[in-house]
Amino acid sequence: MYDINEILEPKTLEEALEMLSVRDNLTVIAGGTDVLVKLREEILNSLNLISIRNIDGLNKIKILKDGSIEIGAMTTFAEIFRNEIINKNISILSQAAVSMGGPQIRNMATIGGNICNGAVSGDSAPTLFSLNSKLKLKSKTDERIVKIKDFYKGPGEVNIKKDELLISIIIEKKDYENKYGTYIKFANRNAMDIALMGVAVLVEVKNKKFKDLRIALGVAGPTPIRCEIAESKGKHMDITDENMKLIGNLALKSSKAIDFWNASKEFKENLIEELTYRALEESVERAENHGNIK
């Protein structure tokens, strides 16, 4: 059923990076929910796998000294939506996590694997884009920080080298403090299906205006997208129903939706406009409930 040549199981990060440094034919497997499906469907074949499942410390969630939140790449989606730090500070990511597959998938699938898969339908991507997330990548000889918007290069293609591992995701304090958001996934079977459209909205409000506004889309182009035109024009707008509908319409200017087997371009654009409006409504309501509209 699965065309696997070998599975290496390093116990430490150093051991894993050493293996990757001397062999260029290894495919990293984290939770396995993407790789094993591709193997079964014969999208991938004859693989030499390196499992990083048993490496200690890659599933930690912590607040750093500067207030940044660091999420280990091997953290599962179940661990994310149950985590106190996430729910208190970046609940939008918890919303995305709980929309990912069913309970069995969430218990296995990791946020790092979801990112490195490079799929625009990944539920974590729009939310992490809205949070201006940064990715820590490490090899045996080097470590680098990459902005998530620079990580996605095309459908299923990401900016990671053969000898590197994604270690963690970092969200700076300025990118989550006093901000409230909503992730909405539209799918044929809700959480049990991949996203037909994913919209993440993050707002900061002051004096009944949008002090900060971020809108990110999944499945609206070859990579996840930030709606920069809508963000720029929407920032400092009065928070009214009319303006939120206008911002939803402006989000279309950044979309690169196309006709596909699962939905037409027109249908996807209708989703973008409507879901952005709904996410704005819910995000403003969350801010209001926390006493952040004055």
From TrEMBL:
Residues 1-212 form the FAD-binding PCMH-type domain. Keywords: Flavoprotein, Oxidoreductase. It comes from the Bacteria. The keyword Oxidoreductase applies. Pfam families: CO_deh_flav_C, FAD_binding_5. The keyword Flavoprotein applies. PANTHER family: XANTHINE DEHYDROGENASE FAD-BINDING SUBUNIT XDHB-RELATED (PTHR42659:SF9), XANTHINE DEHYDROGENASE SUBUNIT C-RELATED (PTHR42659). This is Xanthine dehydrogenase FAD-binding subunit XdhB. It comes from Clostridium oceanicum. The gene is xdhB.
